[in-house]
Amino acid sequence: MKLLNTYRPLLICALFGLGLIGCKTRQSEEEPKKMAIVVSTLNNPWFVFLAEQAQAKAKELGYESKVFDSQNNTSQETDHFENAIASGYDAILFNPTDADGSIVNVKNATAVGVPVFCMDREVNANGAATSQILSDSYSGCVAIGKYFVETLNKKGKYVEILGMVGDNNTWNRSKGFHSVVDQYADLKMVAQQSADFDRNKAMEVLESILQAQPDIDAVFCGNDAMAMGAYQALVAAGKADHVKVFGFDGAEDVVKSIQDGKIVATGMQFPIVMAQTAATFADQYFKGERKFPKKMPVAVELVKRDNIKNYAAYGKED
């Protein structure tokens, strides 16, 4: 069994090479093409919205699609790729679970002629995906870092709650933030811990940190789900009125919390742009286009109390 698992990727490639390519060449040119939408998790409203927008755009363009939930598990993701390819899906709109662990799935798909368009998250292999449409997380968190410094008057103790350690967005956001904040000696990070982009984990993480570091002034979170979890922990500890919380995403509950003065700021991503671009690129691929940007950055905008009227959940106010 161990030997079989070791060579499983090679066996898959061989089967794809001998069987699935032949199946695709025999497929009728008139048969409608299909898009598989593989997302890291549907346990986060932001990714639900991303998947829904990709599916809506695929439908608008005239294609059948199906959403696959990887549940933040690369093995589950692998099963989805195998099932999508075996079931005759012609393109995969993809939100990876892991920048390194997801590479093999992308390569297996493109090896049998199924293009892969990454949304929001990337894989660490140049040219593996047909195109990667990604938020400019680094620049977005440079803006958050500047506002963080301004809000704290250049001094204080803070906690950073990181996302998933295998996701490049986690580190791009952290690096962008620290490129600014680390220039101020009186701003001291007293704890840094991962909560996997999960609301409940972030609440538990901050509750634990507060036992050792009760006198903090701010919390910077790598996404909005964790920002809401951190805020819950602060409420439970009776510290929500004076500890400032910063997030990243532009999720609905954080937009409302900024309006209500509970969360200080967030970085607004635009998942509708990433989802619709991925589906549009797949449509263009079906029609013969083969030149796509290997990486397409999507700007992130700083959202705070004084400009919140311009924004809604996951984007701009209509």
TrEMBL record:
Keyword Nucleus applies: no
Record's protein name: Ribose import binding protein RbsB
The keyword Methyltransferase is assigned to this record: no
Cell compartments where the protein resides: Cell envelope
Pfam families hit by this protein: Peripla_BP_4 (PF13407)
Keywords: Signal
Domain Periplasmic binding protein: 36-289
Organism of derivation: Dyadobacter linearis
Annotated family: Belongs to the bacterial solute-binding protein 2 family.
Primary localization: other
PROSITE patterns attached to this UniProt entry: PROKAR_LIPOPROTEIN
InterPro entries xrefs: Peripla_BP_I (IPR028082), SBP_2_dom (IPR025997)
